[in-house]
Write a structure and sequence with these properties.
The protein is of the alpha/beta class and 189 residues long. It has helices at residues 2-19, 69-80, 132-138, 142-153, and strands at 29-31, 34-38, 44-49, 54-56, 82-97, 102-116, 127-130, 159-166, 178-187.
Length: 189
Amino acid sequence: MNAMRNNLLLLLLLIPLVSFSQTKADSISLTFPKILLINKQQEVLLIFDSNRKAYEVPSMGLIEGPVSFRNYIDAATQQIDVTYVSYRLAGLFTYLFPDKYRTFIRPYFVVQATGYSNGLGVPDAAYKWFPLQEALKEIKYPASALIVEKVLRNPKAVWSAAFEEYGYTNRVEVSKIKFKIVENFTKIN
């Protein structure tokens, strides 16, 4: 009788744990790097998203498969037709989505552009160089604008922070974006 009661008690204690446990798929954090290209005039290269009608820091999307950060940056700069000599990790940022159980890890890399593969300029008209202050005004996503400002104004540090940012619309309406700083900027080097 005691054994049956103990087993029942154990079962009742384990049921809540099982119902709230993560699955393997839930615990995957997707890596979504951003490439912050800077030219000799210290201008920032942004890309215009024609769906959202807004400028953003370039990215090739999620890292899928066995790809190193160097390969990712090489592929991105080749796609944009920009040459570079060096890059640095500017920060690792966490984007949390409370309405979905997932997290994006966004490494931001500052890439010092040296020229153009074609010798002329960026051939895709969606890309445009901006002075920093103007770039910050053009970036409609709050976390991205804060990150760009922090990493470019304080380049000797590698930064970390965590954000909740969601509610994007096609044709970005800043007033509809839900944004919260979960963990403020911290130096991690």
